[in-house]
Inverse folding.
């Protein structure tokens, strides 16, 4: 019997994880806070994957009730924006049990620290693993009702648990599902290597006039030379901060190359 999977979230990445894992025969249950975002998944009873991965993944359960999704899961994939990490930690906390592996996909910057902090604040006594991926494993986008286009799956993504001593046992459990995940030194490495923190807020803030004017805007294609220079300056600061913590961070330029 393959381990049961919980997917928390219903966005692009959550669709990709749920569809791919279900297609590979894992029993998958999906939770989302907002009912209107999962109606199509409930009606379809699964996810259709397109492009790099093709097929239909049937889901055991799609619901706004987190208890049955989390309680019996061996792996809990948290696939939501960073702003929702604390909410998900609070929501699933009463239903956790010893030995479960929680993976933030991705952790962004400080995700695992925040998630573990919420569990500690709530005085959760069960022993669970909390880890974060440096970036999202799938390049993907929802392409229609209960459909996701997966353009590619990354060959390698670094992962770290908090505390760091848990990284090895997490990977031992996780690699049969995803051999692409490899060990980072700690969550400082995964967090300070968050390239999205350079591209996403900077481009959005500096393009807000164009975005609000209603002119069509493609995030990367319409980035201007001035915005690129600003990102390079911010990125240099990020790399300097990482170096001060003993972390060798990849530059945004190298990441793009």
């Amino acid at each position: 019997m393959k381990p049961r999977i919980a997917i928390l979230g219903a966005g692009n990445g959550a669709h990709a994880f749920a569809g791919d894992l279900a297609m590979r025969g894992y029993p998958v249950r999906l939770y989302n806070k907002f009912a209107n975002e999962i109606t199509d998944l409930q009606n379809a009873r699964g996810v259709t994957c397109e492009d790099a991965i093709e097929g239909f993944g049937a889901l055991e359960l799609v619901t706004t009730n987190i208890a049955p999704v989390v309680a019996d899961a061996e792996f809990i994939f948290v696939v939501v924006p960073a702003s929702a990490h604390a909410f998900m930690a609070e929501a699933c906390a009463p239903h956790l049990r010893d030995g479960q592996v929680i993976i933030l996909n991705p952790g962004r910057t400080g995700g695992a620290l925040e998630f573990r902090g919420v569990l500690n604040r709530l005085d959760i006594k069960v022993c669970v693993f909390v880890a974060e991926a440096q970036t999202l494993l799938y390049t993907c986008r929802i392409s229609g009702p209960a459909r996701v286009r997966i353009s590619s799956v990354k060959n390698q993504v670094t992962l770290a648990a908090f505390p760091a001593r848990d990284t090895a046992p997490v990977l031992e459990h996780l690699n049969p599902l995803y051999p692409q995940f490899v060990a980072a030194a700690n969550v400082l490495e995964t967090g300070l290597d968050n390239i999205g923190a350079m591209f996403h807020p900077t481009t959005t803030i500096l393009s807000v006039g164009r975005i609000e004017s209603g002119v069509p805007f493609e995030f990367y294609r319409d980035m201007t030379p001035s915005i690129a220079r600003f990102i390079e300056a911010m990125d240099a600061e990020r790399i300097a901060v990482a170096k001060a913590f003993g972390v060798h961070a990849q530059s945004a330029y190298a990441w793009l190359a």
